[in-house]
Amino acid sequence: MKRNLPIILCLLAIPLLAAASARGGAIQDQEYDIKAAFIYNFAKFVEWPEENEAARSTFSIGILGNDPFGPAIDAAIADKTVEGKRIVIERFPDVGAMRRSGHPIDIVFIGALSADDLEAALEYIEYLPVLTIGETPDFCEKGGIINLVIWKNRIRIEINRAAAERAKLRISSKLLQLALRPDEKE
Amino acid sequence: MKIFRLCIFVLSALAAGPFGGLLSPARAQSLGGKSDLADLSLEELMQIPVHAASRYAQDMSEAPASVTIVTGRDIEAYGHRTLAEILASVPGFYMSYDRSYEYAGMRGFGRPGDFNTRILVLIDGVRTNDVIYNSSGLGTDFNIDVDLIDRIEVVRGPGSVLYGTNAFFAVVNVITKTGRDIDGGRLSVSAASFDTRKGSLSYGGPLRDRGEFLVSGSYCASDGPDLYFPAFDSPATNHGIAEGLDGERFGSYFGKVRYGEWRLGLALMDRDKSRPTASYETIFGNDRDKDLDRRFTADLSYRRELSGSGEAAAHFTFQDYAYEGYYFFPSEEDGDSSLPTLDVDHIRGEWWGIEAKLSGEIFARNRVTGGIEYRDNFKIKQQNYDEGMSVVYLDSRNNTKVTGVYAQHEIRFTEGLILNTGARYDHAEPLNEGNISPRVALILKPAEGTSLKFICGEAFRSPSAFELYYTDGGFTTKGNPDLAPERIRTYEAIVTRKLSDELQGKLAIYRYEIRDLITQYLDRGDSLLQYRNVDAIEANGFEVTFLGKAIGVVEGRLSYSYADARDSASHARLSNSPRHLATLGLVTPLVHGRARAAFEAQYVGARLTLDGNTAKAYAVANLNVTAAHLLGKLDVSAGVRNLFDTRYAYPVGEEFIQDALEADGRTIRVKCTYSF
């Protein structure tokens, strides 16, 4: 077995080299498999402005900051499309990286960012036609559009309609009906 | 070797992936159960119960102890194969291996000759330390396959206040995965150094809408390394070389069903391990020296949430432990080792236990937990005889009954000030032994992200049946029926502070005072080993741990522990007690999060051996790479342990001629898991 060791070490080294472009990390949990499914579902109930749609063959989902999904989200949406467009996932360590990439993004999931970074990110994205999805308690108060909250051990959603209007997104009434109502929270 | 070649092939495919486009999103296939979630409607998604990931972490900040959580995800990333490998990465722990069993040391205490009696191991909340040696198998003889572990809560400090005997230095609570975690089938094969091959098959999923089930089996065979023992380096004993004497085979089978509030768990482990070390003065180089261990556990439990965050829980358990040891001694008459005498240890322990526990808020801000436990250790059988029972040296049969009652009260004066007090009383028959174990903890949270804990507690350990009664007719060991329980008092202060959004620091400072410590002694008069209540020991130390993320994506932990454990009377340092321990662990995502690389390093300072020599300080590093969902359903894990082929040795007990045994050098493992 010892003879094979150099080969093994070389093979191990290759993925390490590929790490140069690595993004993201993860806490793998059923919670995030479900949240990934939510995000895919939202694409069906939101309309993006026409000009944003022109001449693009892909539908882009960005993950900003810490990536809690891991590879599961790539696999889960691999064979799915949004209005015939292939879905691509992009990961950005911070809002600067997202800005620098210059790629058009349709949905951005904002994971655990510090309060300051979250505000900076939302400020930058606010007037872009991007559906912002978060999971921090005051995400909607800070200007995010959809917040995934855990309510009685179930995942529910909060929606900030004003923020959606600013981003020129139309959210279907069906999705609005599913949002957690303020009276439910009491 | 075929499996090994297959693994190499798969590994090559993995390595080619980033370049060959094998892993591009368009080609990656769906994930079975998980991709189906995306096909559910939002209404359906809203019906799936989830447990917030932060829940355990929250509890830990108020737990009256220093706690480390190891998740199944960590175990997978680092490629840990045994509980011993997992514990070696936990701050404050260090391991020893004598080629029969793995032994855990903690905070400067790892008494040679102690069979892990001072660490209580629970599986899904049920005690598993056996009734003969009071031990639990931490190596390949652990009750379940480590791939079935969802998470481990390692609670440092005395836990007798809730669990009674054995919870002396720490409680290790292993929580197994559920059927929903597996959700489908998993077939796993692995190959490792020393011709080690292992296979396992698991299947689980939901059971109607109120339950879930999981069944799993695994089997491993290993030829083991050829070893060199300088102590036996003479022409008569093959120049100290033990060829093909370190092999083992083990299998484990696990089943778990939950339906509503009820849960039934069954686990069986069976191991056959050759003993290459000629311990207990057996003949060196004999390929029939063996240790056979079998552990069976069954537990039926009921758990129900009550209004006002209360909980009612009860469980019934039946467990069976069997050990068979084969020892070949030179024949009495002529001392000719070509005609050896086979001496057999035949050990069997069976017990059942029942426990009921109730907790809830009685007044506002007052939380009370109370419980009662009864264990009937109805069969404690220790036999030692020559082959065919031609001569019987020992035929000891005992039974003991233990009753314990405990209560714990938590009062929350303000959100930032909690007082936690508790006590447990244990009574053991027929020795008529009573033990009280109190604990007081004050927990302060002066600011968001900062907590301070002050803990003072006492714990005990009753002598094991082995320590009390085992005697083999004047060959190696004699019993000591007069042994009394050993006791410990601890004082600990813990500061936990969030240093940034992604980094947490923890400092624990402690003082341990032990009296009547049960220690293995070599009686110089008759050259027999015996356990005695002789030592009083004091230990002072601290641990610093950092946990969090660096450069955004690398998850890591870094710890340093200092322990100074000394005999109270002579102030001599203890054997197998490293003063310095350090651990480093880093996990980084690779290839856009589709793979992970995990690196860990452990430093263990110099330890004294029983002969007063020094087992030198060492640092070992391990590297493991995992890739998930290759070609849709294949996970691959490949790793190297002891990356730099460091040579080091573990101090061992009085039963060895050697005072330290060398550890394995560099080893590799490749594992492939197919989900269906």
Verbal overview:
Chain A has a single domain, classed as Rossmann fold (3-Layer(aba) Sandwich). Chain A is 40% helix and 22% strand. Chain A has nine helices and nine strands. By secondary structure, chain B is mostly beta strands. Chain B is built from nine helices and 35 strands. In chain B, the strands form six sheets. Chain B has a 22-stranded antiparallel barrel. Chain B is globular and about 80 Å long. The model of chain B is unreliable at 1-35 and 51-58 (pLDDT under 50).
> Roughly how many Å apart are the termini of chain B?
25 Å
Q: Mean pLDDT across all residues of chain A, rounded?
A: 76
Report the count of strand segments of chain B: 35
> How many discrete domains of chain A?
1
- Tally the beta strands of chain A: 9
The run of helices and strands of chain A is HHEHEHEEHEHEEEHEHH
The CATH class of chain A is identified as Alpha Beta
Give helix % range of chain B: under 10%
| Helical run tally of chain A | 9
**Largest sheet report of chain B:** 22 strands, antiparallel, barrel
Low-confidence stretches of chain B: 1-35, 51-58
Summarize the structure.
The complex is a heterodimer of chains A (186) and B (676). Chain A is α/β, with parallel strands linked by helices and 186 residues long.
SSE layout:
The complex is a heterodimer of chains A (186) and B (676).
Chain A (H helix, E strand, L loop, with lengths): L4 H14 L11 H16 E2 L2 H4 L4 E7 L6 H6 L4 E2 L2 E8 L2 H7 L5 E4 L4 H11 L5 E4 L11 E6 L2 E6 L1 H6 L3 E2 L1 H6 L3 H4 L1
Parallel strand pairs in A: 2-4, 2-5, 5-6, 6-7
Antiparallel strand pairs in A: 1-9, 3-4, 7-8
Chain B lengths: L1 H19 L12 H5 L4 H4 L8 H9 L4 E5 H7 L4 H5 L5 E5 L4 E5 L12 E5 L2 E2 L21 E8 L3 H4 L6 E7 L2 H4 L1 E9 L3 E12 L3 E12 L4 E2 L12 E2 L5 E12 L2 E13 L15 E17 L3 E20 L11 E23 L2 E21 L5 E23 L2 E13 L3 E15 L2 E12 L3 H5 L16 E15 L2 E21 L4 E23 L3 E14 L12 E11 L4 E10 L2 E2 L5 E2 L2 E13 L3 E8 L7 E3 L8 E3 L4 E9 L1
Parallel strand pairs in B: 4-7
Antiparallel strand pairs in B: 1-6, 2-3, 4-5, 6-7, 8-9, 8-35, 9-10, 10-13, 11-12, 13-14, 14-15, 15-16, 16-17, 17-18, 18-19, 19-20, 20-21, 21-22, 22-23, 23-24, 24-25, 25-26, 26-27, 27-28, 28-31, 29-30, 31-32, 32-35, 33-34
